Amino acid sequence: MLTTILPLSLAGLASAAPFTSRQVVPNYPETQLSKAFRLVANVTDPSKDFDPPVNNWVFNGIHTGAGFNDAVLFADGDSSGRVFYQNGTAEEIRYYEGSVLSDGGTPPFPFGIYVAAEDQTDADGYHDVSLNVGTGTKSVQLQHFPEIYPVLRGAGQGTYVACNQVVPYYNKEYVTIRWTYDIFDSETALYEHNIPDACIAIKLVAECATLNDLPEGSLSSHEYASNVNCYKDVSAIDWTKYGP
Length: 244
Hints:
- By secondary structure, the protein is mainly β.
- The protein has one helix at residues 90-94, and strands at residues 12-14, 21-23, 32-34, 36-43, 58-65, 68-74, 85-87, 99-104, 109-115, 127-133, 158-167, 172-181, 183-185, 190-192, 199-209, 225-226, 228-230.
- The chain has one domain (29-241).
- This is DUF7907 domain-containing protein.
- Residues 1-16 form the signal peptide.
């Protein structure tokens, strides 16, 4: 599958002289450090993008009940895109035992990203991604070294997808964010993405944002908000220029 975020690999290219080689120098977009970020959709195969395209749309949540929000993509704008922070000690972050949180409510309290388990599906057979009160699903953090790109991990082996889907709470179609678990192909002995017909594979890329101060009486805390690598402006990146 094509991808606008180039796969990570290092390769040596043989030169004309025998028994000599030239090492390719990796080249990646410059990142910054920030305690807050938005999540921007990168459509991994641009030829399969929706019309209108959703590449560079941003992660947001739509209210579906007290303390519950469905994960959706909205076109980028001044007020769109939920602001997140990665929460946990250095050891928790290192072993993917932290969480990605967003403050909401009055007084502010933490909302975490939840990814449905493999045996949990909605009416359309999709695995929900939601932004609910709590600390979210373990392992759902930004990738860190040796992964180069600051993208959001999911649950198990699979990929995030964007889907044209009616949200029952509103009886209205949204571009929802869902997770699909890879399936094992016995013929190739490899795991492959399982993308529903109404969906396209995406990566959720960290774009730097500002972490606001919390008012007195907040139930949220930024004490363990950690610095993360993120991009200044994801939509400005020409991914074809980067890679090893």
